[in-house]
Amino acid sequence: MKFISGCSLLGAGLAIISIAGSGIGIGILFAGFLTALSNRPDLEEKLFGYLILGFALTEAVALLGLMVSMVILFSK
Description:
Helices cover 91% and strands 0% of the residues. It has helices at residues 2-39, 44-74. The longest helix has 38 residues, at 2-39.
């Protein structure tokens, strides 16, 4: 029983790694946005739309990882 409990804690911890990856992805996304904006300021509205879409999709990955870890921890 202790082995299964330990493995579930390990699995929940591994699922939380997606939050770190999401943070890195959001940083890369905003860096790319600022680089593109400095090169082509006339495309600000279009680039901002892409930025928001990318941010939402990247954040969804983090929330999915958080949800999976909570399901692992609190299911019996």
